[in-house]
Give the backbone structure.
Amino acid sequence: MLKEVALMVGCITLLSGNAMASDMHGKALYEKSCAACHGFDGKVSDVGKKLKPYPARDLTALSDVVDRDELRRIIAYGIRGTAMVPKKYDLDSAEIEDVIDYIFTFKRKVNMLNGKKRFEQVCATCHGFDGRAKTGMGAKNLVYSKLDLKETVHTIRYGRVGTKMTSKRHQLTNPDIEDVAYYVHELRFKADINKGAKLFSSTCKACHSSPSAIKLQGNRAHALKITDMSDYLLDLRIRHGRHVDRAGKGVAKLSEDDTQNIIAYLKKEIK
Ligand code: HEC
Ligand code: HEC
Ligand code: HEC
């Protein structure tokens, strides 16, 4: 009881001291409990590099790409079967937040060239050098992926259960993963609305006088708007199924990129 009161008073003094209190506290906790393996600068100590079965991980490549919640979970529960054992550090939940705040002050510069190199080594066999996944491996086309950066990183870190997309956490360092994620997003197709407008005039206008004149089909059509639909679903409705019978070969022959350009134009006009 006395100890608890003393601790509380300690905390209050720290907090009221100045705005940096929590950072200072986080730094002190980190240096005491984490730096031996993760390094004072977050880049892994010599001891950390030699740990079995897996070395400690670089913490400088997390702040922009990994959710706080994930770090909370790892610090509180550890990682089974590794030297990342949680109980030893004895941090309460407020202290965990302070340590995370401190870890998030570690930064590094993204290295796109490294991202490209690692992507080509580790991902291209399935996703293709251009990210379009025309490899027969059943991988996803990353050029049209809608995942945000954190979701992409999460997929790389943990994979997708039950698919060939396995976790790459032990094949790549955290800096590698961050670089690859930025590179993968750089490969994304960037829709061109002007091209979409031209294609609409040449391929669609004969039947649809304007984007807002298009009537969606199906029994929920009255409740749906083109702007509510994902680009993927719209692509299916335009280039496949009954619409091809209605609209003819010109539409069936559109490439995926053409259709994405048209969709970008439709969504801009309808909004
Ligand atoms: C005895 C060495 C050791 C200490 C001390 C240690 N860690 Fe770790 N930590 C590891 C190892 C090893 C891993 C990697 C385990 C793996 O590959 O799954 C790890 C992983 C992590 C990860 C996950 C990184 C990632 O990319 O998945 C975080 C976050 C982390 N540690 C934070 C901390 C914090 C915060 C402390 C201090 C409170 C701490 N660690 C103390 C060895 C240590
Ligand atoms: C052995 C083949 C294989 C390798 C190697 C591979 N992937 Fe995948 N990847 C897949 C498959 C299959 C899926 C689809 C999983 C599913 O059905 O959800 C996928 C899905 C993804 C997704 C999700 C895309 C989305 O929009 O849902 C991302 C991101 C991704 N991979 C990135 C990578 C990166 C980056 C690498 C290299 C570090 C990589 N993958 C290596 C097979 C692979
Ligand atoms: C030869 C005529 C024709 C052409 C060309 C045509 N469409 Fe259609 N489209 C139709 C008809 C008929 C429908 C049914 C609803 C209606 O009358 O608006 C339809 C429906 C649609 C729908 C709703 C589909 C659904 O399942 O809800 C979309 C989206 C659409 N068209 C987009 C396009 C786009 C984009 C193009 C140009 C790339 C195009 N259409 C070219 C005739 C055409």
About this structure: The CA atoms of residues 235 and 256 lie 8 Å apart. Residues 12-19 have pLDDT under 50 and may be disordered. The pocket of heme C (ligand 1) is lined by residues 33-34, 36-38, 51, 54-57, 71, 74-75, 79, 82-84, 89, 91, 99, 174 (CB under 6 Å).
